[in-house]
Design a protein that fits this description.
Layout (H helix, E strand, L loop, with lengths): L2 H15 L4 H5 L6 H31 L3 H4 L9 H23 L4 H4 L2 H14 L9 H28 L4 H4 L2 H21 L24 H17 L3 H9 L1 H4 L28 H28 L12
Keywords: Membrane, Transmembrane, Transmembrane helix
Length: about 325
């Protein structure tokens, strides 16, 4: 399959996956099939991580080989409210941080449809007697789902939040765009790790993996500004990115990502020949999905291929 056909397939998939479900849209909640898939994916990974931390804690308690192990925190009775709070913080934590600084209302304040969706998915996943363990065979196929849902955040939600801002200083600032993408995508997981919300012990402050040595190598940490910057470059979301697109013409042109303008048939159209023009927003998002799918697939291989070989993976490469 050619790259153009692959991009067209992703665009067509988005047209279907992002179409609001009529029954829910009639009730005022424009929720799509992709929203539902993302909610269940998040609920599944959070339950898998809770079970991993619970199993690791029991192993440490049973070993009790060192004084440090003897001082382990006791297990805390599991609370559904804590699980719900963890889910909401993961989803809306980043938005709750950046929205006040940008002077906009967070989406979960305006509408309760999406919070109810994520809470419902969490409750349904918790009713399942058992879920598959985290492994290469589960994470690798789901990398595509992660890419589709993450691209909506990084290519639709965040750029529109900045480029439509009422302040020209904010709407034209590439730094604000990248910083917003970085915080919005990472603040939620950072809070969850800092307050140890996924662990079976009482809530305690701890250093999140991203701030430990080599924590910067975590894919989820740096992929947000990278993909948002790529989307902004391909679509000329701000003047800076239009100049960058032209500057990187020799890099993007062989990939078909730097089309040139042609003179219009109308003499008064004012089209300059040979100028790099932006890609269609849907095509640019599809390109970002391909990049995200590749990066998330590599993340899964790096994190869990050592498990297949009976070796323990680095904690920084796990998806948390």
């Amino acid at each position: 399959m050619s790259s153009a056909a692959l991009v067209a397939s992703i665009v067509a998939l988005y047209d279907y996956a992002l179409y609001p479900i009529p029954a829910l849209a009639w009730m005022g909640a424009p929720i799509s099939f992709l929203d539902i898939a993302g909610a269940f994916r998040l609920a599944l990974i959070l339950r898998q991580l809770r079970e991993v931390f619970h199993r690791d804690h029991l192993i440490k308690v049973n070993n009790r080989q060192t004084l440090k192990d003897r001082a382990l925190e006791p297990l805390e009775q599991r609370s559904r409210v804590r699980d719900f709070a963890t889910n909401l913080i993961m989803v809306f934590g980043g938005e709750a941080v950046v929205a006040p600084w940008l002077g906009i209302q967070p989406s979960f304040i305006v509408s309760g449809g999406y919070p109810l969706l994520f809470l419902s998915a969490s409750a349904l996943i918790d009713t399942i007697p058992a879920v598959p363990e985290l492994s290469l065979f589960t994470e690798l196929p789901l990398s595509g789902v992660d890419a589709l849902t993450r691209a909506v955040l990084l290519c639709n939600f965040i750029p529109s939040m900045i480029t439509t801002h009422t302040s020209p200083t904010v709407s034209t600032s590439p730094y604000t765009l990248l910083l917003t993408a970085f915080i919005a995508a990472n603040a939620g997981p950072l809070f969850v790790n800092t307050f140890s919300l996924l662990r079976p012990t009482p809530m305690t402050f701890m250093t999140p993996p991203e701030l430990l040595p080599y924590g910067w190598t975590a894919t989820d940490l740096w992929v947000a500004p990278l993909v948002t910057g790529l989307y902004a470059t391909l679509t000329h979301a701000q003047p800076f990115w239009a100049h960058l697109h032209a500057l990187l013409f020799s890099f993007f042109s062989p990939l078909g990502l730097a089309p040139l303008s042609f003179p219009s048939a109308k003499p008064d159209a004012g089209v300059v020949e040979g100028v790099v023009v932006p890609l269609n927003a849907n095509d640019a998002r599809a390109v970002c999905v391909l990049v995200l799918s590749t990066l998330f697939s590599l993340r899964a291989v790096r994190s869990f291929s050592s498990v297949v070989a009976n070796f323990e993976p680095s904690p920084f490469l796990r998806r948390y």
